[in-house]
Amino acid sequence: PRSVEFREGKVHIIDQLLLPKEFKVISLETVEEVARAIKTLQVRGAPAIGATAAYGLALLAEKSKMENKEKFLDEFYRAFEVLKNTRPTAVNLFWALNRIKDIVEEHREESLDKIKSLIVEEAHKIADEDVEANLRMGHYGAEILPEGNILTHCNAGSLATVHLGTVGAALRVMHREGKLRLLWVDETRPVLQGARLSAWEYHYDGISLKLISDNMAGFVMQQGRVDAIIVGADRIVANGDFANKIGTYSLAVLAKEHNIPFFTIAPLSTIDMSLKSGKEIPIEERPKEEVLTCGGCKIAPDVDVYNPAFDVTPHKYLTAIITDKGVVYPPFERNLKKLFE
Amino acid sequence: PRSVEFREGKVHIIDQLLLPKEFKVISLETVEEVARAIKTLQVRGAPAIGATAAYGLALLAEKSKMENKEKFLDEFYRAFEVLKNTRPTAVNLFWALNRIKDIVEEHREESLDKIKSLIVEEAHKIADEDVEANLRMGHYGAEILPEGNILTHCNAGSLATVHLGTVGAALRVMHREGKLRLLWVDETRPVLQGARLSAWEYHYDGISLKLISDNMAGFVMQQGRVDAIIVGADRIVANGDFANKIGTYSLAVLAKEHNIPFFTIAPLSTIDMSLKSGKEIPIEERPKEEVLTCGGCKIAPDVDVYNPAFDVTPHKYLTAIITDKGVVYPPFERNLKKLFE
């Protein structure tokens, strides 16, 4: 089943904050509910956020009572802004919203009904294409990842996308082909996407895994028990630098120290050619409560914290970028450009 | 007040599992209670464990009803074994127990009362010397640490020793001298000694600090916001390799990548000249529940975990080792030897 769906005028998502204690699909009925679900991380993962936001606009198109085109468009642009301002780092959100805005603007002269149906259609396309992209990426990834023990961080699995995942697709193909011996899952503090989501979904699929605290990854590498590291991405820029869940940069440095190949995997919608270097990517800081608590328990006195949700890994640490249009090797600046030609 | 005390025939410790929610001093009345407190981490930190175990033998000496010397010695050796088998990695435990055993064996011909009082006396000496060692180390540390932002991992503060701490002493001296701008405190999963203990004790002392998840340390270094890293040690061996809380090795690699000086600080009782390299240090693996839970909350489905409590940092990552007999620079093998001449 898909992690994000749009049926009967509602956006259905798996509430990722309740996992792994409870598997619950919730229905979002307004743009504000969709925005809140993105902001609070009920839905997270760059591609999943993109599809959910697109469906937020589809929801508006199906439910809006505006019969005047201009008034509907006002409402549309307001919804666009509300959804755009939910999270700053992952670029798929802006990519999906802009794709729908472009369709609307291209067809501005059409009837209101036509525009509304084009919005819904485009949102479904975004979601369907994500699934297809994951399938392709999964095969590219499984082909270049070495057989053996793979380490991953955060969750770039089925839950982070519409279906299958980016990292998730590659791991599932490897698992099916008998190439995945053991998966090391970083718990991924502070929000525990590794412990709560990756451990849950990969264990469910029968993949042999071991959960570790983030700070154990280096020791496991030192012991020679990691053959490759693969992570998702929230934004990849023109020179190959990329933002991903906090902790990714540390893994990249550790991978280099141990000569372990290090990959990111993401669809083209994650690539932002408008930024030249990773230094330009805005990094979201999240509430201090995420660091002061863990899985709902208070773990520290009320002190100051720093809570960046992402970090930026310079491209020099990357072995290759796996996309739905093939594997990109260094020099990334030249080779990423070719993807868009 | 000291973290470990022996009065009125009882060993008094701060129950570190209850911090920071509750500050509670508990009294241990039997060797078995002392052993359990060490095993369950009610008392932790290499020097604190050493002193607590020594007081465990003092407790036996004061309370034993044996009036026959041979029978008392049987009881003593049984207690020695029970205490020795609590935790495998930190060497201060064995050092403190052996120090008392040596005293007993040297004075085997004395009266039983004399032997008992020598045991109690030696245990007090071990504790007092720890406090003095920390004071000296604190000054050596504050002298060579650069002014600015310091990052630490786990807790090597007052709670980890009899008083003041190893890292804690250095930080406190720096703070008093106005040299400590900001302290970055790693939360230190899985047992959260950073979030629960370091954040608590340094905040209490008015040190300006920010708590971070372990996986944020690399990003903070990348931003140029760390001037030095200092950690404690559970065992330093002849070539300068050392075991410390899991996550230390990753910090060492990250420090090297960012040209940040990296220090460990420990009393001579932490140095084990009988082992040549860090590969020989036994690494304790702890129960899976520590990884599957956090601060008392369940955070993951019931999957396999790997839970090493320590890792080993090769000496090549170390800028210097700060001891109570001065600062040791490379080549460590030669210079550590000199300490014991």
Structure overview:
Two copies of one chain form a homodimer. With 341 residues, chain A is of the alpha/beta class. In chain A, 41% of the residues lie in helices and 18% in strands. Chain A is built from eleven helices and 16 strands. Chain A has helices at 31-39, 46-63, 69-84, 92-106, 112-144, 167-176, 193-204, 217-222, 248-257, 289-292, 332-339, and strands spanning 4-7, 10-14, 25-28, 148-152, 180-186, 209-212, 228-231, 235-237, 242-245, 262-265, 271-272, 293-294, 297-298, 310-313, 320-323, 326-328. A seven-stranded mixed sheet of chain A has the order 6-5-4-7-10-15-16, with helices on both faces. The longest helix of chain A has 33 residues, at 112-144. In chain A, 57% of the residues are buried. Chains A and B meet through strand 5, helix 7, strand 6, helix 8 and helix 9 of A and strand 5, helix 7, strand 6, helix 8 and helix 9 of B.
Shape descriptor of chain A: globular
The quaternary state of the protein chains shown equals homodimer
- State the major sheet of chain A: 7 strands, mixed
Question: How much helicity do the residues of chain A have?
Answer: 40-55%
Q: How big a fraction of the residues of chain A is strand?
A: 15-25%
Specify Rg of chain A, calculated over alpha carbons: 20 Å
Biggest interface between protein chains, with counts per chain?
Answer: A-B, 56 and 56 residues
Whole-number mean pLDDT of chain A: 98
The H/E string of chain A reads EEEHHHHHEHEHEHEEEHEEHEEEEEH
Strand segment count of chain A:
16
State the separation between the terminal residues of chain A, measured CA to CA: 34 Å
Strand numbers in spatial order across the main sheet of chain A: 6-5-4-7-10-15-16
Number of helices of chain A: 11
